[in-house]
Amino acid sequence: MLKTYPAIAADRGVTRQVLSDHKDLMIVSFKFEAGAEGALHNHPHVQSTFVRSGKFRFTLGEEQIEVGPGDSFIIPSEATHGCVCLESGELIDSFTPRRDDFL
Q1: d(Cα 66, Cα 95) in Å, to the nearest integer?
Q2: What Rg do the C-alpha atoms of the chain give, in angstroms?
Q3: CATH number of residue 23's parent domain
Q4: CB atoms within 10 A of CB 95
Q5: How far apart are alpha carbons 60 and 50 in whole angstroms?
Q6: pLDDT tens for residues 6-30?
Q7: Strands, E, within 24-62: which ranges?
Q8: Whole-model pTM?
Q9: Is 36 part of a structural domain of the chain?
Q10: Would 61 be classed as within a structural domain?
């Protein structure tokens, strides 16, 4: 069954839209305005992030990396992470298992 989810305001300058979900996997689009932030946080899910567009500075634990279109990386379970959007863009995140808090 194909299900459509609305885009919602996640944080200031950030919208979130669940693209697809299953109990074991979820795909989510995050659109950021330049200067918007994803606050430092952690969660039990393993996360894969793909940069569809824009430029971002990510904090992963003690490390900072800058990423742009086409870059991707894995965030392990419980790893503290967050980002600052340097140029407006979109991140496509996959979570396993699904993030029920996004539904």
Answers
A1: 21
A2: 13
A3: 2.60.120.10
A4: 21
A5: 15
A6: 999 999 999 999 999 999 999 999 9
A7: 25-32, 37-41, 46-60
A8: 0.96
A9: no
A10: yes
DSSP letters spanning 7-27: -EEEETTEEEEEEEEETTEEE
Q: Is the peptide bond before 69 cis (omega within 30 degrees of 0)?
A: no
Segments of the chain scoring below 70 in pLDDT = 1
For strand 14-22 and strand 8-11, is the pairing parallel, antiparallel, or unpaired? Answer: antiparallel
- pLDDT value at position 29? 98
The C-alpha angle with vertex 52 and arms to 49 and 58, in degrees rounded to 5, equals 45
- 80 in Cβ contact with 41 (< 8 Å): yes
Which ranges constitute the DSSP H helices of 1-103? none
Contact 41, 11 (CB under 8 A): no
